[in-house]
Amino acid sequence: MSGNNGFISIQNVDKYFGSFQAINDVSMTVGHGEFFSLLGASGCGKTTLLRMLAGFENPSSGEIYIDGQPMSDVPPHMRPVNMVFQNYAIFPHLNVRDNIAYGLRKQKLPKARRDDMVDEMLELIKLPHYGNRKANQLSGGQRQRIALARALILRPKVLLLDEPLGALDKQLREQMQLELRALQRTVGITFVFVTHDQEEALTLSDRIAVMSRGEVLQLDTPGGLYERPQGREVASFIGTMNFFDGQVRGQTAEAISVEAAGLGVLSIPETKGRFVEGESVQIALRPEKLELMDAAPTDGSESTKGVLQNAAYLGERSHYYVKVDGHETPIAVSAQNRFDGSFAVEEGKPVWLTWRDEAAVVLR
Amino acid sequence: MSVESYIRKPNRPLQLYAAIFLITLYLPVLFLPLFSFNDSLYVRFPLESFTVRWYVELFARDAVWNALWNSVRVGVAVALVSTTMGIFAAKAITRYRMPGKGPVVTFIMLPLVVPLIIFGVALLVLMSQLGVPLSLYTVAIGHMIVCLPFSIAVLIPRFEGFDASIEEASADLGENAWWTFWRVTLPMVGPGVLASLMLTFTVSFDEFILAFFLSGTQPTLPMYIWGQLRFPQEFPSVLALSSIIIVVSFVIVFLGQWINRGAISASTSGDAS
């Protein structure tokens, strides 16, 4: 009765709340020791899926296996998983030590052994002298660490994290991201992480499942999602993306030739999909894959001429918006602001855009 | 923050209104202790000299102590049972989705607004139909019906005051429903439970109408006072007894509210960070 070969295996899971379908036929596997993220806008079903792993909701159909064991008849308190809640759910009537030791009651350890384990955890989360504080004497970042320690002390097979960094300010969030990643490597436990923040998911994860309307749109590595999105929705959800209407002109074994509005004919490496000539497709090209120039390139590479509409200065980089004939929305171009001075911004100034065809992605 | 801010600006007419309101509410009550220290059988001005003899007389009477003991026994039993039931009801009302919850809650809260005399008559008819002899037990049953809504009303805000994810966290950390209740839910609603115990005890202790219909040969304290009213010479003692009851009731109710309020502000201030 083993569920596939993954450490966590979700098989054909549906979930209805009344007539609303929160999860629509989701199947996926998560490997042992993997940092796995569920990414999507609110209401996409990611939290429902996480709560089904924890046992707070049960699938309407389908089955979830953890370490080979089917989970549908296992209540939350019997599952080999622990969760870090979105609001941390620290027990307000207990101090930090008692919060961390909460789950150890059933193990009936001698007091000295239990104290050692709690000390070890306080050390791990870098709060060694906070044991006797009350929950309401802690900052958001500290509560988050307590919630982590309280779950990790039980050595779960899987740690579930429900937007644990959402309540923290930007600086603390970035610090906690690094710590979380380091911690996951140290303890070697499988993490399933729910977030709506695509940057966070890209930074932390080994693999990411992008979800929308209860379905998994794409399951891939961060690089795979960013560089090779498999649909317009994923492409626009992760980062910024320029889209161009295109028509297939021909396809060989290695590449596909597409005429894109505003860009001309591109030859894009594409080995998976089969396209017919004349088929309408979309070309997606990231802002940072485009380069802005004052004059037409002399080396003969592909370029298109446009008019600079406006620019946004973002510190380390600037975003430029270029209007090109044959393409309605301005094309976004992102460029580093180098030491030798930024690109002189003059609205209405003629500019040239260049790119490498390999950077473009064909979307159906 | 300043006292001068728009919403906190002192408003003289409203302050005057508040003062008049409180005086009208409590002035009649204040006459009880006033005349209980008056050295005269008659309740009238001008006051005679100060005395504590009505109180001394009171303490010498076995019947008073007997009635007090009856009321305390009923009050404690009613407080324990109705608060226990109130805890489960409040948890169910705040935590579970169930069909027809609204009407059920209204139904439970109904004794707060239905005249007690109707409950008294109804229960009296029921008891006699069932052949149950009237006693302190029947009084306690009547009081439980009245006290349950008070208990629920005190406890619901406590349950709503803490996030259900705290109970989920306990389950997630390996505790079943029973242990979660003991280790998390009960401590979290603890102050509310204490407040409910005090409030329901006071309601039962002061209740007269149901006791009047449902008591047997054993009177509760309000019943005893009612009985004494027939004898004019006993009236100052009744005033003394009533004064004591008022003071004790006030103390218990305020204590309960204070415990509950303090706990709520402590638990919410923790979420601010």
Overview of this structure, please?
- With 364 residues, chain A is an alpha+beta fold.
- Chain A contains 8 helices and 20 strands.
- Chain A has helices at 46-54, 96-100, 111-124, 140-152, 170-187, 198-204, 222-227, 232-237; strands at residues 8-17, 20-30, 35-39, 61-66, 69-70, 81-84, 158-162, 190-195, 207-212, 215-220, 242-251, 255-260, 264-269, 280-285, 291-293, 303-313, 317-324, 327-336, 350-354, 361-363.
- Chain A has a 6-stranded mixed β-sheet, with helices on both faces.
- In chain A, strand 4 (61-66) and strand 5 form a beta hairpin.
- In chain A, helix 3 (111-124) crosses helix 4.
- Chain A is elongated and about 75 Å long.
- The model of chain A has no long low-confidence stretch (mean pLDDT 88).
- With 273 residues, chain B is mostly helical.
- Chain B has one domain (55-262): MetI-like fold (Orthogonal Bundle).
- Helix content of chain B is 74%, strand content 0%.
- In chain B, helix 1 (12-36) crosses helix 11.
- In chain B, 32% of the residues are buried.
- The interface between A and B is medium-sized, with 32 and 25 residues.
The CATH superfamily of chain B turns out to be: MetI-like
Following the backbone from N to C, one meets helices and strands of chain B in this order, namely HHHHHHHHHHH
* CATH architectural name of chain B: Orthogonal Bundle
The coarse overall form of chain B would be: globular
The low-confidence runs of chain B, each spanning 5 or more residues with pLDDT under 50, are: 268-273
Structural class of chain B: mainly alpha
Count of spatially separate domains of chain A: 2
* CATH class (first level) name of the largest domain in chain A: Alpha Beta
Rg of chain B computed from alpha carbons, rounded to a whole number of angstroms: 23 Å
What number is the mean pLDDT of chain A? 88
Number of separate helices of chain B: 11
Going across the biggest sheet of chain A, name each strand in turn. Answer: 6-7-8-3-9-10
Assembly state (oligomeric): heterodimer
Shape of chain A: elongated
Radius of gyration of chain A: 25 Å
For this structure, the CATH topology of chain B is: MetI-like fold
What proportion strand of chain A?
Answer: 35-45%
Query: Architecture of the largest domain in chain A, CATH level 2?
Result: 3-Layer(aba) Sandwich
Count of distinct structural domains of chain B: 1
EC number (chain A): 7.6.2.11
GO molecular function (chain A): ABC-type polyamine transporter activity; ATP binding; ATP hydrolysis activity
Catalytic activity (chain A): ATP + H2O + polyamine-[polyamine-binding protein]Side 1 = ADP + phosphate + polyamineSide 2 + [polyamine-binding protein]Side 1
Protein name (chain A): Spermidine/putrescine import ATP-binding protein PotA
